[in-house]
Amino acid sequence: TLLVGAVGSFLPGPFFEVLQEFIQSSVLPAIGGLTELGLTGAGIIIGALLLELLGSFLGGRLGNRYHTRINRTT
User: Does this model's pTM top 0.70?
Assistant: First the structure.
């Protein structure tokens, strides 16, 4: 909910309400369901976060390599 408050302060009123309602109705119950699974749920959450970090790292490296190659040709 802290993230919703931080992002929502930049959004107009109706958009913030829609975002807050979406997070409370779909995101939080899904995370709650995973935490009820105990160790398995924690493993799923940690695995998803690690996969996200790996994807962002690889995307950054590949993008940097691409733009370096483009800068050399121009």
Answer: no
